[in-house]
Amino acid sequence: MARVCPLFSGSSGNCIYIGSGTGGLLIDAGVSAKRIEQSLFDRDIDPRSVSAVFITHEHSDHIQGISILAKRYGMKIYASNGTLSDMAAHDKLPAGADIHPLTADDCVCEQELYIRPFKTMHDAAESFGYVVQTPDDRKIALATDLGVMTQEVMDAVSGCDMVILESNHDISMLSAGSYPYYLKRRILSPYGHLSNEACAAVLPALISSGTTRFVLAHLSRENNLPDLAYQTALSELVQFGMEADEDYKLIVAPPESTERMIVF
Fold first, then answer.
1. For 228, what's the count of Cα atoms within 13 Å in the CB-facing half-sphere?
2. Mean pLDDT of the residues in the chain
3. Fewest CB within a 10 Å sphere: which of 77, 85, 122, 237?
4. What is the pLDDT of residue 58?
5. Is-contact 29 65, C-beta < 8 A?
6. Is the torsion defined by CA of 70, 43, 167, 208 positive or negative?
7. Domain tally, the chain
8. Which helix (H) or strand (E) holds 149?
9. pLDDT tens digits, 197-211
10. What is the pTM assigned to this prediction?
11. Cα distance between residue 214 and residue 98, in whole Å
12. Domain that holds residue 38
């Protein structure tokens, strides 16, 4: 049995909990350690049962709380060599932390969960997504901060039971919004963020591969709306004759979750 909760999601901070029968892990720690602790406590999870944090990349909305969590609870830190090197260069790694460099060919085990990284395209040193396999062979994939859905990412997440996938912005809202031109170009580039439309376009293929649960994540507060992301995905799936709650379940991760857990 897997327990999953996107504790925080979006440009203001990201942190996902995935648990097994023995404990759990975090993917990213992009808000304060205090807020992460409280979010875990609210779900009756002892932070001491969380053995590791897997970092996708070094941007602040993914690592803000990592130093205090690692010091306070002895959590291991896993990330790519590029991410760890950038964090070290900017004094973002706590002294004496239990640090584990990863390559895209690795598979590691924490709390009876098997974690495999995969490469993503983003304007970071060496960004990763992750696939987590539970003891009963369920697979959960996290793929956010994607400029583009590459074949490598599709191969990694295809067949997963749950995919937490970026649906960052609506292209029209971004284009008409107040962001400066250089920032709009960055977001729309192959090293930026995945739009609602690009996210929706890959969902039918993922359902055909066996995915039954989707969490739309990392929504922009300025350039998106939860209902717009949801409806864009739903419209694409309707065109392929796929019915919500029969062929798949679809939810949108809020900036800060108040839900208990997704259990499956």
1. 17
2. 96
3. 85
4. 98
5. yes
6. positive
7. 1
8. none
9. 999 999 999 999 999
10. 0.97
11. 32
12. 3-263
